[in-house]
Amino acid sequence: MFSIELQCDGPHKDLLIAELWEAGSAGIVELEPGGLRAFFEDDSARPVLADRFRAASWRQEEQRDWVAESRTGFEPLAVGQRFFLVPEWRADPAPDGRFRIQVNPGMAFGTGRHETTQLCLEALETYLRPGTRMLDVGTGCGILAHAAVLLGARAVYACDIDPEAVTIARGMAGRNVFTGSVDAVRSGWADLMAANISPEAIVALAPELLRALAPHGVLLVSGFECQEIVAVEAAISRHGGAILEARDKGAWALLAVGVTLDGGAGHVDEQKAVS
Questions:
Q1: For residue 26, with 0-12 CB atoms within 10 Å meaning exposed, 13-18 middle and 19 or more buried, which class applies?
Q2: What's the rounded Cα separation, in Å, for the pair 53 and 24?
Q3: What total of structural domains would you count in the chain?
Q4: Exposed / middle / buried, residue 60 (Cβ in 10 Å: 0-12, 13-18, 19+)
Q5: Which own/partner contact pairs does 46-51 have at CB distance under 8 Å and 24+ positions apart?
Q6: Over the stretch 180-218, which tens digit does the pLDDT of each residue have?
């Protein structure tokens, strides 16, 4: 058995964890201040895996139950006032007043451990009202869409450009998850929208995000660091968006956005977000 050490931080860490599990890892532990150590059984695969994942280093390991040991690092996590995230191998019940969400830390980004996902979940508690039509752009594992259902949204759609993520998200958020992006959504459909994606993607998609937002709707954007707020805010403002509030957690940020009077699209009555 051997292990490889990888340097990784930020919103891509969960995706890297998913790729390591897919590559046959026997266990993964998170390192401080940032990084991962992944364990593999087949010593002959070391050169290929070390090269594929650009490992910072590797070492030979003694035979141990690394799956069990890696799981000890994933404890249940209370987020905001309403949510309780539990790894799929644990049976912990949710405390009174909280929704229990079962997550698999090895499947896709959005398991709730990253600050941006937590910011989005907390913002959903603030802005989602029963009867809301919600769209989750770049859904990952579907955790935000699932949370919206739990909070009482009337209709929830989610999308991702990664077909594998869509398959995973459907298991958590239901059948209204499609492969694609916000450009497939009807103008003015979403009362509430979440886009926990990269700052570059937010800047590029800003006109489409605001087009799909209802006149009195709220767009929640995250996935970027506090130092990147200026660029994101500038792109949103150029296309008719107005910043309602900014939140931060650690080095990461979230912006809540409304539509200015001359921005956005007219209201539509269609129940379905996409044709």
A1: buried
A2: 13
A3: 2
A4: exposed
A5: 46/2, 46/4, 49/4, 49/23, 50/4
A6: 999 999 999 999 999 999 999 999 999 999 999 999 999
The CATH number for 211's domain is: 3.40.50.150
pTM score: 0.75
Find out whether 106 and 129 touch, Cβ atoms under 8 Å: no
Give residue 35's pLDDT band: very low, low, confident or very high (50, 70, 90). confident
39 and 173 assigned to the same domain: no
pLDDT per position as a tens digit, 246-259? 999 999 999 999 98
User: Do 119 and 52 fall within a single domain?
Assistant: no
Contact 189, 268 (CB under 8 A): yes
Per the CB < 8 A criterion, the answer to whether 35 and 9 are in contact is: yes
Structure tokens, 153? 């949204």
Q: Is residue 92, in this structure, part of any structural domain at all?
A: no
